[in-house]
Amino acid sequence: MIEEKASAKVNLCLQILDQTPEGFHLLDSVVVFTEFGDDLLFEKSDKLELSIQGPFSDNIPIDGSNLILKAATALKQLSQIKTGAHITLTKNLPPSAGIGGGSSDAAATIRGLCRLWKTNPPLLDDMLKIGSDLPVCFTQRTQHMQGIGEILSTITNFPSFPILLVNPLKIVSTQKVFQLLKNKQNSALSKYEKSSYKKKEWMNWLIAQRNDLLEPALEIEPIISEVLQLISKQNGVGKVSMSGSGATCFGIFENKSDCDLALKKIQEQRPEWWTVSTQTKSI
Q: Which residues are catalytic?
């Protein structure tokens, strides 16, 4: 049996620079992964099978639209694998939440099946065909992501931060968010000195960056504004924003005790929301 963690993917900033003639959006984003995420188990089997458990298992389809099955099928075909696998997903992350749950699950599937089947991972172009977030999710490292998701640069000295994830359990359509995005030619991320920045300098840099998808997401789900305000009121919080196309919002804290206390306060005030206190991964 092989185990893989599919960490939550958080866009600490996400700026939309342009749109290609084919309709793809050109991104400029710093992406981190958290210690909290979904869990996957892989076992040998004659057939390719998927079973799902966990708090969000009822929200996940088990058909051709499932990214885990798409990734597994693609790897099996590309590697000419004759056997199958039984995959068990424990779904801890809310779906369609802007934290890459499906893509992270698919990337973990490729990692797990490569170990189970003793084969090599697909090429970048093949991963992009499954999903644009698959390449960044494959390594689960802090990365500067550009282009349509294919230009990746690992930020080796990025510190590990306590991070609070809050989702009002409202599903926001990524496609609709991009449709409502009024300006698709925005400024790039500010320059940074990744070789010399300390923790405080990274925090100050992040605070100055944007998520260009926040405004259209607020049109779809105005409650996102309440989530951001509630996180901003917590002691010790630095950067506060929305991840991806929403509706998950986050707060980065200087220490874990403030992050844990914020979790308790928000859970008391809005117990119906999904809230997690965790840590970003360091390389």
A: 9, 133
